[in-house]
Amino acid sequence: MVEKTESLDNSMVQKIKKGEMCMKPKYVFVGIYALIITGIASLFLISAWFANVLFYKVRSHNLWRYLSFGEPGMQAFWHNIPFGAIILALLIFIAGIFWLKRFDICYKKNFTFITIFFLTAVVSSALLMDRYGLNKTLDQKKYLWEMYHNQFINPDWVIGTVIHRDPKGYYIRNVDGRFFRAVPITLNTKLPNLNRSECLKIKGIITDEYTIRATNIYKCSYRFIP
Amino acid sequence: MTDITDEQIAKEIVNGNSELFGELVRRYEQKLVRYTTYILQDKSAAYDVVQDTFIKSFENLKSFNTERKFSSWIYRIAHNESINRIKKSGKEIFNVDFDFLKELMPPDAAPDVEFEKNEINEILKKSMETLPVKFREVLTLYYLENKSYDEISDILRISIGTVGTWINRGKAKLKKILQELY
């Protein structure tokens, strides 16, 4: 504690002279500022990319068409909505807004206005990303397959509704209208007792265009949880 | 020296004339001690905070934009240091003079006889105890430090609209507390 306030100015000058107090170089502040701005911009861009995945799926898979399939179509619709991408887009957007507030950027403006402005910017960027074909290259990447593609057929599983059952397996049709014959890969593979129109997920090896040798067959719940 | 602005002095210091920092300390020491005392309500803690404020302001002087007001910048540092001190200690001590708040007293608070100065101070102390720091701070900056809404906005990093809202709410709360007490 400083006992005599009158001498504070002198004590400060003395500290400066002795080198106990030093000014930080300007590049430190420039660097920190650049990092903050880059971080915030990156958060909004990543958020826009996840939102773009939603727009891409709705547009390219024509998700509204699924609804005309009745109950299975409804399930397909919900199953194909990329909830993970939506949640991540929202969380990252909130993180961006939090950073804006945390680092006192735009404090002069109304916070609701700022939030609406950035939300509009993120949605517009997402639409532009989708419009200008960013997804065309990305949806070919294997690690993005789950996020980009119709999730009713995968290299090792198929989801569809039962149209016929015989002692050897099931005949199913997926939402895209493709037919598959699912046969157990071994005699031990259990076949659940499913009726016509019920949904199931078959995990196994797709051997040709319409046959899948099933290692597991599950009855799907409403949400088709894989 | 008095005709040189704070911003010009800051520029000179950055350019190498470090001894001029003493002038800035002289100009702001009392103001900042008064301001931080009202926030912390502990004079000795306020002195410590003011010392830290000057050290931080010198260390970070190269980040100061001389196009903006130096007073808002240094008050901002003092505000941050005070808030950090409150968070650290987790409690607030009251040991200050609240004379400046007399004008906020409702007219019927003192019935016929004039309150003694100490008595009024006591009432105001008790009333202020219940006010959140944010309201105490805007009231101090506006009424005691004579800062404009724009400057308060820069110091507290809130919008100008919020400054007005907090001042009005702070006044209303204080009046309500005083009315409940008397």
TrEMBL record, chain A:
Keywords: Membrane, Transmembrane, Transmembrane helix. The chain crosses the membrane at residues 27-56, 76-99, 111-129. The keyword Transmembrane helix applies. It comes from the Bacteria. This is Uncharacterized protein. It comes from candidate division WWE3 bacterium.
TrEMBL record, chain B:
Keywords: Sigma factor, Transcription, Transcription regulation. Gene3D superfamilies: 1.10.1740.10, Winged helix-like DNA-binding domain superfamily/Winged helix DNA-binding domain. The keyword Oxidoreductase does not apply. One of its GO terms (biological process) is DNA-templated transcription initiation. InterPro entries: RNA_pol_sigma-70-like, RNA_pol_sigma-70_dom, RNA_pol_sigma70_r2, RNA_pol_sigma70_r4_t2, RNA_pol_sigma_r2, RNA_pol_sigma_r3/r4-like, WH-like_DNA-bd_sf. Residues 123-174 form the RNA polymerase sigma factor 70 region 4 type domain. It comes from the Bacteria. SUPFAM superfamilies: Sigma2 domain of RNA polymerase sigma factors, Sigma3 and sigma4 domains of RNA polymerase sigma factors. GO terms for molecular function: DNA binding; sigma factor activity. Residues 24-90 form the RNA polymerase sigma-70 region domain. Belongs to the sigma-70 factor family. ECF subfamily. NCBIfam families: sigma70-ECF. This is RNA polymerase sigma factor. The lineage of its organism: Bacteria, Katanobacteria.
